[in-house]
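We store sequence with structure; for instance:
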Amino acid sequence: MLGFDRPARPGRIQFPTTTWGWYTETMSRRFGWVLIGAMACTSATTEEPAMPAQESTPEAETPAEPAAPATPPEAPAPAPAVTVQMTAATLADDCGGGPPPPAAPAKAKAKRRDMEGRSSARMARVCEQTSMQLSVVAAADAEQTQLTVAKVELYDDKGALLGELTARAPSVWGEDGSYQAWDESIAGGQELSVSYALSQPPWGDISDRRDRTYVLKAALTINGDEELVQREVEVAAPTILPPNVKT
């Protein structure tokens, strides 16, 4: 009964049998059983075999994008039907003839003809015509076409425009070894050497014109298409002969 002492059992430690003592003993026993159960659960949890690692499924490979088709090379530009090059040029004077002189008496005419003859001989030695020479080559299958000189310009060695020259008297080198008048027509398969007389450069506006390099440019029209040709031209200093040297 509560509140009374009970006899002690042999081999056991006697606890007080008061109400508080009995309650303490009971709770101690219960706590002991709870502790033993918790230790057993922990042991069971620790000894539980680990789950095998799940094998990863390999990702499906993304198919490579097809390579872009190679850009076909551009077709080469067709060769021109007519090829023109400036092969030579002369920068000097304009030796073209002028208007005829006025009429004179017969005696004066004879004297004048004699003077003009000697003057012409001297001019033939000193006058040098300004001109340009072109090489014209037409393909074998080229159609008949026409060449026209649209413009001729003269530049100095620094690229400054000095003036425009006028082209005239087109001529072509013939089989007889001389230049002949040319109508500027070109037939397929022809290889021509042609020449144009040019007006005199504006030497009066150019100081120290000799011993310098110039650039002559010509704009040509061939079958309606414009083509530019050019060439460097050197104007050498005049040769000074020693005195008393006959020429």
Notes: Confidence is low (pLDDT under 50) at residues 97-105. The CA atoms of residues 113 and 119 lie 10 Å apart. The first strand starts at residue 82 and ends at 90. The helical segments are 19-47, 106-126.
